[in-house]
Design brief:
Elements (H helix, E strand, L loop, with lengths): L7 H9 L22 E2 L12 H15 L3 H4 L12 H8 L6 E3 L3 H12 L8 E5 L4 H13 L4 H4 E4 L10 H11 L3 E7 L11 H10 L3 E5 L18 E4 L14 E4 L1 H4 L41 H17 L1 H22 L4 E3 L12 E5 L2 H14 L2 E2 L1 E3 L3 E4 L8 H18 L1
Parallel strand pairs: 1-11, 3-4, 3-5, 5-6, 6-7
Antiparallel strand pairs: 2-8, 7-8, 9-10, 10-13, 12-13
Helix pairs in contact: 1-14, 2-11, 5-6, 8-9, 12-14, 13-14
């Protein structure tokens, strides 16, 4: 392999010429128990810690120790409005106005809140369309919401299967399925990036198809935000949800986020569950019984923001603002193409790239499917782990690899593919 254009010298040269390379030093890079550096390619599952995250959290702990309850008003970043500090950064990454996004709760909690607000079955319009093999939390939430309304998920949850040969979705087929459901369809819930295959979608196209039959469109951007440039407002999403511990690097279980299209928040009698923190800020502390919704997405919040969970998100958003999502995306396309080219040189029939080949149809993640099945995939995965490669395996036979442009480089890709080559040879 060293004689082909993807050799180590070229990888190092590309890293040396990378204008985003200095951002790597602004993250804590994992090491093995013996101190050896690991090759971390698992940002699609948990992003690495920004070095400043500890400073951001320590500042809040210091203010808590110093000020107690007064920190709600007098902390360095007053806790009363702490989530507001994330609005601008999240809005830029989501492709929305700041007022239309809010940092709150966790992914599945936000999905339940959005379903409570926007899934209102009436007459024959009861069905929710979801991709088959959706991330478990999405399917659990949707099925339980259907049951909450007294509906049988077996009859009212439409799970669209991918192409059986390629394992990915044809957007024309998704459109056609939406059209077939017609006035029986209440909601299309679709991912920005499908977690298992890594396939990305033209969500504006799918939202238009949903609206054309009178249904609403909601997007799960857990694997898309911070990975791809998004445009939730222009795509006409009715709502979108995301977590912030993957590409947004905010730490395990960190605060999630939500977008609500302004056509819903500006309407009279905007719907949704109500909580104290969704009440308008100007009169919130009058403690009056009548609920007055805060304008924008913030009106869907229920509780005061989890400060210690939000602090690392602010540290990460600062890095995104400095790097720029456009520059990150350009590097990501190059990294992923380099990864794909290296895999295809030696994998042959042993491994196929499940993720679609075009940059418009994928983000940072490539999913590799093993022809030898689950046992072979687990054996190769074990060898990679022993060689210091951090990625993950989705049963039965799909390995997910994500070179993240904020902290990964071409040499990381070279190391992974070289170890993969050796593991495939060893396992036969």
């Amino acid at each position: 392999m060293s004689t082909v254009p993807g050799d180590l010298a070229l990888a190092r040269a590309r890293d040396a010429a990378d204008p985003l390379r200095p951002f790597r030093e602004r993250f804590c890079l994992p090491v093995a128990a013996d101190g050896r550096p690991l090759t971390y390619l698992c940002g699609h599952s948990l992003g690495l810690a920004p070095r400043t995250a500890r400073d951001y959290v320590d500042r809040e702990l210091d203010d808590w120790a110093r000020l107690g309850v007064v920190g709600h008003h007098a902390a360095t970043r007053p806790w009363m409005t702490y989530a507001d500090h994330a609005q601008a950064g999240l809005a830029q990454l989501a492709g929305a106005a700041p007022a239309d996004v809010v940092a709150m709760n966790s992914l599945t909690t936000n999905l339940h809140l959005m379903l409570a607000a926007f899934y209102r079955p009436r007459g024959v319009r009861t069905r929710i369309l979801l991709e088959a093999g959706a991330f478990s939390s999405d399917r659990h939430a949707v099925a339980s919401q259907l049951a909450w309304h007294g509906l049988d998920p077996a009859a009212h949850l439409v799970e669209l299967e991918p192409d059986p040969r390629s394992g990915v979705f044809d957007e024309a087929e998704v459109e056609a399925a939406i059209g077939r459901e017609g006035d029986r369809l209440a909601l299309v819930l679709w991912p920005g990036v499908q977690y298992r295959s890594g396939q990305a979608f033209d969500l504006g196209r799918l939202a238009r198809a949903a609206h054309a039959v009178g249904a609403l469109a909601g997007f799960d951007h857990a694997h898309a935000i911070g990975n791809l440039p998004l445009s939730v407002t222009a795509d006409e999403a009715d709502f979108a949800i995301w977590c912030s511990y993957k590409y947004l690097n905010a730490g395990p279980g960190a605060v999630g986020g939500c977008f609500v299209h302004p056509r819903h928040t500006r309407a009279e009698g905007a719907r949704g569950l109500e909580g104290w923190w969704g009440h308008e800020a100007a009169t919130r502390f009058r403690m009056e019984p009548r609920f007055v919704r805060e304008p924008g997405a913030a009106g869907f919040a229920l509780s005061n923001p989890p400060v210690l969970s939000t602090a690392p998100l602010l540290a990460s958003l600062e890095l995104f603002a400095a790097a720029g999502i456009g520059a990150l995306r350009r590097k990501s396309v190059e990294l992923t193409a380099f990864l794909e080219a290296r895999v295809e040189q030696f994998a042959g029939r042993a491994v196929r790239v499940l993720t679609p080949p075009g940059p418009a149809q994928r983000g940072a993640q490539l999913s590799l499917q093993f022809a030898g099945g689950g046992e072979h995939a687990r054996a190769v995965f074990g060898r990679l782990a022993g060689d210091g490669i951090v990625c993950d395996l989705r049963e039965p036979d799909v390995m997910r690899i994500a070179p993240v442009p904020l902290y990964n480089g071409f040499e990381d890709v070279w190391h992974f593919t070289s170890r993969l080559d050796a593991a495939l040879r060893a396992e036969g």
